[in-house]
Amino acid sequence: LTIFKMEEMTWRELDQLDRERTLFLLPLGPMEEHGPHLPLGTDPLAAEIMAERAAQLADQAVSSINIVLLPRLYAGYSEGAMHFCGTLSVGLTTLRNLVHDLCSSIARHGFTRILLVNHHMELAHIKVLLQAAEDTMKRHPVRIVEASSAIFFTDGVNGGVEKEAWGQEEIHADVRETSLMLYRYPELVKGGYQHLPPVRINIAEQLSQGHIYYEEMGAQEGYMGSPAQASSELGQRHLETGAGAIAQLVLKLIRNEDICQIGSRMKYVLKHYAK
Ligand SMILES: [Zn+2]
């Protein structure tokens, strides 16, 4: 397996790759507030970290496969955090068209497999990524999988992530994201994170009450969870777990195996609560 960075390749180098044995990884997420302690670029940075590590892990498992890494895309629908300065939300129609257009272009060059490595779990955002993938697959002979829903919203049928010990209340700028950033970009984590009190929010309850803004859910500082518990060691563990699950999807795509994109319960949730 060879890992290429698309932005550093020439068109001839890309053109030489076997269309049936090449997979594109597109890391993406919005520029978005991440509490008083993490940078606005946390989601796209985290997506890129995950994609790079997943490529390495897949590399150890198969040979004669090419992975083309796209640079991180700062694009996502982030209405929930819009009350906080610095959040840049891409509208749903624009996002759907943008992801469709990028994937279609890849498909028009004859490539057949794309994995969207998304690191933003807002329901409407996920819904639109899935729609963009569907739109593209209707028009071109390409297979596109959105990794986050295939890992988290299918009850593990893809062999995804085991239920993590820290539970359901780690949601945003939480122990996981803070740990991941401490592991890979420690210079970007503000020193006071160890003193942030935990913010416990039942996200399912909030969504069922029609709340979509982080502030109205009770996240006054823009984080939900317990970032004070974060550590570089936890970050490395979180990275290995997440990237391992993404690498499994890479291998399944390459081997043309079935992948459950989204479970029936989440399909229902997206249909009724994603707006
Ligand atoms: Zn995030």
Structural features, described:
The protein is an alpha/beta fold and 275 residues long. It is 43% helix and 10% strand. Strands 1, 2, 3, 4, 5 and 6 form a six-stranded parallel sheet that branches. Helix 2 packs across helix 9, helix 4 (123-139) packs across helix 10 and helix 6 crosses helix 9. It is globular and about 50 Å long. Bound molecules: zinc ion. Zinc ion is lined by residues 34, 42-43, 172, 177. Zinc ion binds at residues 34, 42-43, 172, 177.
Terminal CA distance reads 40 Å
Largest sheet: 6 strands, parallel
Instruction: Output the helix-strand order.
Output: EHEHEEHEHEHHHHHH
Q: Mean pLDDT across all residues, rounded? A: 93
Helix content, binned percent? 40-55%
- Model regions low in confidence, pLDDT < 50 over at least 5 residues: none
Shape: globular
Strand coverage percent? 5-15%
What small molecules accompany the polymer chains?
zinc ion
- Give the strand tally: 6
What would you call the structural class? Answer: alpha/beta
SS field, number of helical segments: 10
Radius of gyration: 18 Å
